[in-house]
Amino acid sequence: MKKLISFLFVSFAAAAMMVSCKPTGEEPNDPSNPGSGEISISLDKTSLNLLEDESAQLVATVSPEGTTVTWSSDNLDVAVVGNTGMVKAVGQGSCIITAKAGGKSAQCAVNVTRGEVVVDEALKGSNYYLLFLDEESASQIPADKIVKDYRVNEADIKLFIWPEGDSYSDGSAVGKNSFGLAQGWLCFKSNEAPWGGTGAGASNLTVAGLDYSGTDDTYTFRCAYKSTDGGKNEIGFINGDGGEVWIVLPAQTDGQWHVFEKTLGELGLSWTAPFDVAQNIMMFRSSPANTTLNLDAAFIYKK
Asked: What is the Cα 258 distance to its own chain's centre?
């Protein structure tokens, strides 16, 4: 009887050992079950130096093979990365690209610089009267070529809205401006029909006179604009005689930047002598409701 009990005990123990050694899943390095092994990840590069708009491929080596890799950038204004590790430089600066697999990660430091600066022909003139222009583009104009700066600064030159209330709302100025820079522009959406408007100016502001040298064609007004809705967008100025001059921008629907450029003589605009404006230097209005105006690089200058 004792032998039988011993035999049963030994048999039970052996069965228990067999159960405890049975695999709970696939083999540790089986690609179909990558989570069953210890994960490791590395990148083929630990640093990248790129020019704006350049791209470069990062390659992640991960074990077990087939483990999912996720990518991220800690500064999307400098560089972005796709789900395959393709890095695209956006703007100047530094950022870190991180590849993660499970609880492990690997990083690559990215430094983005500008290549050769190409100055647009519109910024190579003289006698500039700035109405709207981003800081980077304005810095490409020699200071002695800028006569007056009438850009909105929220100190003494502000944006006014009419009719008062919610006739206009901010649009989304996302992407690159008309000079291909990652800079902002004016973007407004008309909320009321038939008209909503904005203006840039200040009370009791004196607008400088222009040295016409005897002809209205000496100076040119230039701006860039874009639209997708085909609405009617206009730009208005207070003229030297106190009246208003309105410019109708040709309707656009392609969402691309277009340049509008005419001499002041063609527009009927004259600032031959200094004059005071009660409120607005430059005005905008749009119709019908839900029309969006994207305006960039607006100035008067000599070519």
From this structure: 18
pLDDT band at 46 (very low <50, low <70, confident <90, very high): very high
Considering the domain architecture, whether residues 192 and 105 belong to the same structural domain is answered as no
Last residue of a domain, one of 113, 134, 164: 113
Question: For the purposes of burial, counting CB atoms within 10 Å of the CB of 274, is it exposed (0-12), middle (13-18) or buried (19 or more)?
Answer: exposed
Please tell me whether residues 105 and 217 are part of one structural domain. no
Please answer whether residues 265 and 275 qualify as being in contact, where contact means their C-beta atoms are separated by less than 8 angstroms.
no
d(CA 170, CA 186): 9
Report in angstroms the alpha-carbon separations of 280 from 93, 157, 235, 247, 272: 38, 9, 12, 15, 18
Query: Is 273 found in the same domain as 177?
Result: yes
d(C-alpha 134, C-alpha 184), whole Å: 7
Taking each continuous run of H as one helix and of E as one strand, the counts in the chain are 3, 23
**Domain-ending residue, one of 93, 113, 133:** 113
Instruction: Please report whether residue 207 resides in a domain.
Output: yes
101 and 138 share a domain? Answer: no
d(CA 148, CA 301): 11
Q: How do residues 150-161 score in pLDDT, each as one tens digit?
A: 888 767 777 666
Answer yes or no: are the C-beta atoms of 173 and 187 closer than 8 Å: yes
- Do the bridges between strand 196-201 and strand 280-287 make them parallel or antiparallel, or are there none, so unpaired? antiparallel
> For residue 97, with 0-12 CB atoms within 10 Å meaning exposed, 13-18 middle and 19 or more buried, which class applies?
buried
pTM score, whole prediction:
0.63
Q: What is the domain range of residue 176?
A: 121-302
